[in-house]
Amino acid sequence: MSEVSEGPSEPGSPAKLGMNGKGEGSTETQLESSEPTEYEKKKQTFITRTIWTFIMITVFFVAMFSGHIYIIGIITTIQIISFKEVIAIANVPSRAKGLKFTRSLNWYFLGTAMYYLYGESVIYYFKHIVLVDKVLLPFATHHRFISFMLYTIGFVFFVGSLQKGHYRFQFTQFAWTHMALYLIVVQAHFVMNNIFEGMIWFFLPASLVITNDIFAYICGIAFGRTQLIKLSPKKTVEGFVGAWVFTVIFGIGATNVLMRYSYFICPVDDLGANIFTGLTCTPNPVFIPQAYSLPAWTHITRIFHIAPMQFHVLVFATFASLIAPFGGFFASGLKRTFKVKDFGESIPGHGGITDRMDCQFIMGFFAFMYYQSFIAVYKASVGGVMEMAIHGLSGEEQVEVVRGLAKYLVNQGVVADGVLECLNGELGPRRR
Predict the structure, then answer these.
(1) C-beta neighbour count of 281 within 10 angstroms
(2) pLDDT interval class at 96 (50, 70, 90)
(3) Is residue 372 within 8 Å of 286, Cβ to Cβ?
């Protein structure tokens, strides 16, 4: 080896140069310049986020106009993926590997919960179909007992799988699974019930939350100064209040449009219906304009015709603006606890499904409770009458009901005389 190669090289000496005459320093500079800058990263994220936002909006509206069954399918998918994401952030892979049934039990409890909740909805909204089917009737009659036994099997299996040295981890997973079932699966179940009650009870709450989120961002950038909550440092009081105002305005306008279409205001009686076939029903009184007048002291005698729904939407918009965001704050606290940025990577540019649905779950739950408490009209339904007859009358009494109803319909001219004769012939002589 020469002295030149052994000793320290002077700046610009051949020892620092490559075959092409360029130094190593220039190579490092090229590598640094090839890496995207912070601005380019943000730009790419913004483009990806925007593209997927339009994709989600398109899929949502296509599904909504295609029929209720497609929206139910989307809600079911969201339930499963959100459950998976929330369970994953609390999982410890190194410990779960040594426990055979930890993950299997999580999914078993999810399946049991969905069987119970979906079964309750199907039986409630489609009694007239389920209760007359020979195969489905036993499952409908004993649905809650079957669901309880399924849960009990999972509970016993969990206790049997406890292993020494893993008790804390296993009980933590058990509690975490049940919390996820309540916060995600149970609340999403009520969102699905809103769809059965009428598309407006699903679409309006969801759109109010989205509108509030958009205007909270815009108002926060425009004139936000005061921090709202430490969990989300970027949230401001000004953005919070400004979004409330714009959400109320949007809610009034959207309600005025949606309640004109029976597809949105009618309860579901045909899962095959879509925006083109439509639905028919007697509108809920909340959608029918009522006459209102101002107090006498205002000296204004004009009569105003306003649908009561326009007043109810003020409550919906207020909840979406002032309460629902705390679902997002709760999710932020959860992510900070486990030191993760997002719940997952299900949606490019947005994070996980749970990151987009954290406010929607509690909003949908509220919409169902509010509707059932203040808006729903309770009256006898075909399914309700059939359920009472099946469970409360004997076979002979049920036959008498059929005969009596047939005779009434013949007298009213609804059905032909031959129907009554046919029924009497098929059902046999009346027993004394």
Answers:
(1) 12
(2) low
(3) no
Cα–Cα distance between 326 and 124 in angstroms, integer? 31
- According to DSSP, the residues that pair with 290 across neighbouring strands are 306
CB distance 266 to 281 below 8 Å: yes
- Taken as a whole, the chain contains a residue count of 432
Q: Look at residue 348 and give its three-state secondary structure.
A: coil
SS3 86: helix
Cα separation, 224 vs 234, whole angstroms: 9
Between CA 180 and CA 88 the distance in angstroms is 11
Residue 413 Cα distances to 117, 131, 401, 408, 419, angstroms? 42, 28, 18, 9, 11
The single-letter code of the amino acid at 192 is: M
Residue 303's SS3 state is: strand
375 DSSP assignment: I
Counting Cα atoms < 13 Å in the Cβ hemisphere of 340 gives 18
Q: What is the pLDDT of residues 265-310, one digit of tens each?
A: 999 877 788 888 888 899 999 999 999 888 888 888 888 899 999 9
Q: What number of CA atoms fall less than 13 Å from residue 318's CA on the CB side?
A: 7
Q: What is the pLDDT of residues 165-195, one digit of tens each?
A: 888 888 988 999 999 999 999 999 999 999 9
Give mean pLDDT, residues 385-413.
Answer: 78
List the one residue out of 175, 119, 172 whose CA is nearest residue 148: 119
3-state secondary structure (DSSP) of residue 233: strand
Q: For residue 8, give both structure tokens.
A: 């320290």
Spatial CB neighbours of 239, under 8 Å, sequence gap ≥ 6: 215, 216, 217, 218, 219, 220, 221, 224, 228
Closest CA to 333 of 236, 235, 232, 237: 232
- Residues 358 and 368: their CA atoms lie apart, in Å, by 17
Do residues 191 and 202 lie in contact, with contact meaning Cβ atoms separated by under 8 Å?
yes
